[in-house]
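Q: My labmate handed me this sequence with no annotations at all. I'd like to see what the chain might look like in three dimensions before we decide whether it's worth expressing. Could you predict it?
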Amino acid sequence: MADPASDCRVTMDTTTHPLRDTPRYQAVKDYILDRIRLGVWGPKQAVPSEHELMRTLGVARMTANRALRELAAVGVLKRVPGLGTFVADLTAASHPLALRNISEEIRARGHAHHARVLQLKKMRAPPPVAAHLALTSDSKEVFVSKILHYENKVPLQLELRYVNPRIAPDYLGVDFRLTTPHAYLVAIAPLERVEHKVRAEWGERSIRQALTLNASEPVLLIERITWSQGIPATYTLLHHPGSRFELSGTFNPG
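A: Here is what I predict for the chain of 254 residues:
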């Protein structure tokens, strides 16, 4: 078996590291997340042990332990007693509000998916979006995409997504007719945390028209914030026709 540290024999230079002002354990976490994001370590692959991180990055064992422990706590890593620490398989989830790639979800039902890109641009974040993404006063520009997803030529989801440019600097260059924002972002920015809110609302006229809703049909809205690399990564509003979309799942109590 290859040495799991063989891909990371790089000294962490705190004078040039972009997170030099953050605690050392956070810098170690960012280092691990960067290697996962770049594909150096894939799902179920071993990552360096505490001793290997100590030797490679020049940190204390307590620092390395905290970094691994916190990444395991949020599901990025999986620690197996007696075997080591591994990259978690972030595609597996059973909660009804788990992140799902809508194109895969539709195709799993044997149906056809296609998407219309209605908007893809850089803009100054509206105040609520800036607050959700914790943007500072001197850096409030975000990337925004508005995409209408179809199932068998019927509108199923209107996705309005605001993306922190620090997380996905090449976002505006992606052809979202060929891939979804979810698939692209999960590939480049491993998730650390997700928050959801679900509510029914009437919806603005433009949203209702896009989803071809009838006069009495509500909009089912999923409001989502994701974190990656220690900062808020995306703020997303997923609009669905109330009669053509449902959330379901199975879990074991306790």
